[in-house]
Amino acid sequence: MANPITFAFAAALATALPAATWAQDFSGSPSVTLRLSSASPAGMEDSRALTDMAEYLSEATDGTVTLKPFFASALFDEIKGMSAAQSGLVDMAIACTCNMTKQTDSMLFSDLPYLWNEMDNGREVWDSEIGEQISEEMRENLGLRALAFTPSGGGYRILWNNSGEIRTPEDAKDVKIRTTATPLEQDFWRRVGAIPTPVDIGETYSALQQDLVDGEHLQPAWLTLLKHDEVVKYGTEIGAVAVYRVLVINDDSYDKMDEAQKAAFEEAVQLFEDRAYGYNHALRDQEIAKFEAGGGQIYTPTEEELEQWREIGRSLWDSDTVTSTVPAELIQKVLDAQD
Question: Where are the beta strands (DSSP E) in 199-265?
Fold first, then answer.
């Protein structure tokens, strides 16, 4: 299991890129530019890792391959960006697995509450037969290569609220929780006893400020990025959902590179994955510290209290909402891959 990496150490990682592990002559290689669409701002962990990847790729290929990331939805939002990569309008894209439903339902399992035993267990799952099957399906049906899966926004979502300290599900009874329109998310909070209230993320700040909702379930990096830390003062580490992103490249764009460039590209992808995991830990620590420095309080439930949350979350696994889209055998495979 990976150990948390401090922000200082993660920052140091970015200052020195490793040299390519092999020497190659790129004098006869084609000049390739890969345009990448991302909705994440430049400071997010996946964006920082992509910046490192771009620098490494340029150095490793003697400048013959240029990766040009466009952050903060400069080209497209996540859903449209993935469609653009599929059509070849851009070469690459990165998106949360939850925003891949237009292309495939093979990653729906990722958002099940209490499926991920640890924040870094994604590597054990995505690098297993499960990830291989998803990648094969995407290439065959979408013409996209799934390159890497990495955690997003500082890892586990935290239950934030402006009402008071929440320790157990009983404390969340009748609390209005902002949700997306996703049935799974709404069903979870309904079972907790809270009142799921769908609100667009762009309207959530004012909804919290005006007490139209009392709280939300969000990663710490997005809380501070959206300035929601100004309107919530309490957080609870319920550890229910860890959010992952998938990085893809259009198959035709991949084939623009020659074999030497592809080899360097694969090294660059590994660098991206390593950095993204490191930055994710660092970003979580940084944003939680920022929240607490502003007077916010975060509660970590006892094991007994946490088991109450887990019991409710895992009760969804047998619900019609889940069984209609996520096979029980797939859930078991994900659990087994984390052992």
Answer: 215-218, 234-236, 242-250
